[in-house]
Specification:
The structure is a single chain. The chain is α/β, with parallel strands linked by helices. The chain has a single domain, classed as 3-Layer(aba) Sandwich (Undecaprenyl pyrophosphate synthetase), CATH 3.40.1180.10. Helices cover about 45% and strands about 15% of the residues. The longest helix is centred in the middle third of the chain and has 24 residues. The radius of gyration is 19 Å and the shape is globular. The chain starts with a helix and ends with a helix. The structure holds 3-methylbut-3-enyl trihydrogen diphosphate (IPE) (2 copies) and magnesium ion. One 3-methylbut-3-enyl trihydrogen diphosphate binds next to helix 2. The site of one 3-methylbut-3-enyl trihydrogen diphosphate has 11 residues, from helix 2.
């Protein structure tokens, strides 16, 4: 039986987050420039987005470019931004066909003008779609997101709109970039690195973590299905005992 057939559709994670890592090493292994890896990584994105949509996953959030990634060589940063523009352009028809709603989180004002414009255009075009919500984390840093939420709440307190004692976990969460989205139940990281790299720190408090050695350009739909199956075998206890949750 294929991995897909073994998945229990009643127990799908509603939200899957992915740290798409290993593009550079993939290219290097083939004697090519890092950018070649990013280009091939787009093929994995396409495959995984389609597979998640087909299954009925509601939210897929992809770590596409971190706040820290701005510190990479200028040439690589420029190439990634250009790749983003051309990919949005090329894939928009497919997103429409697949009923995917595009979304973005992060410090988007830092993106080059053309990139920002293309992104907002694509988000707007897909805004009435009702299938998978595909969120790109761009210029995204989780600590920055948390500070930003604190600033928003502080401003509301200052204006008298809010009392400090009314700030609870739910309100704080609503003020993150991901406000309104459920927290991810499953976080996947490729490339054999066992770290979070400033991704969705608040939101993954109780996520199941899945690490694979595969480099991102080698990660395809079957790998997503395998990760979901692994997730479905776990017992999520949320601090309770095994007897309590069964
Ligand atoms: C992930 O692959 C893509 C981005 C961070 C933009 P990397 O570019 O980090 O590839 P490695 O980790 O150097 O192999
Ligand atoms: C995390 O990968 C960011 C993205 C996948 C976009 P990095 O390659 O930037 O993370 P580190 O530097 O290995 O922690
Ligand atoms: Mg990396």
């Amino acid at each position: 039986m294929s991995y897909k057939d073994q998945i229990d559709l009643q127990k799908l994670p509603r939200h899957i987050a992915v740290i798409m890592d290993g593009n550079g090493r993939w290219a290097k292994g083939k004697g090519k420039l890092r950018v070649f890896g990013h280009h091939n990584g787009v093929l994995s994105v396409r495959d995984v987005v389609e597979a998640a949509g087909e299954l009925g996953v509601q939210y897929l959030t992809l770590y596409t470019f971190s706040a820290e990634n701005w510190n990479r060589p200028k040439l690589e940063v420029t190439a990634i931004m250009e790749l983003l523009i051309s990919t949005l352009n090329k894939e928009i028809a497919k997103l429409m066909n697949n009923n995917v709603r595009l979304n973005a989180i992060g410090d988007l004002d830092k993106l080059p003008g053309k990139c920002h414009k293309e992104l907002l255009g694509a988000i707007e075009k897909t805004s009435a779609n009702t299938g998978l919500v595909l969120t790109l984390a761009l210029s995204y840093g989780s600590r920055n997101e948390i500070v930003h939420a604190a600033q928003r709440l502080a401003a509301k307190v200052q204006s008298g709109e809010l009392q400090p004692h009314n700030i609870d976990e739910q309100l704080f969460e609503d003020n993150l970039y991901t406000g309104g989205m459920p927290n991810p139940e499953l976080l996947i990281r490729t490339s054999g690195e066992y770290r979070i790299s400033n991704y969705l720190l608040w939101q993954i408090a109780y996520a199941e973590l899945y690490f694979t050695q595969k480099l991102w350009p080698d990660f395809r739909r079957e790998d997503l299905f395998e990760a979901i199956l692994d997730y479905q075998k776990r017992e999520r206890r949320f601090g309770k005992t095994s007897e309590q949750v069964n």
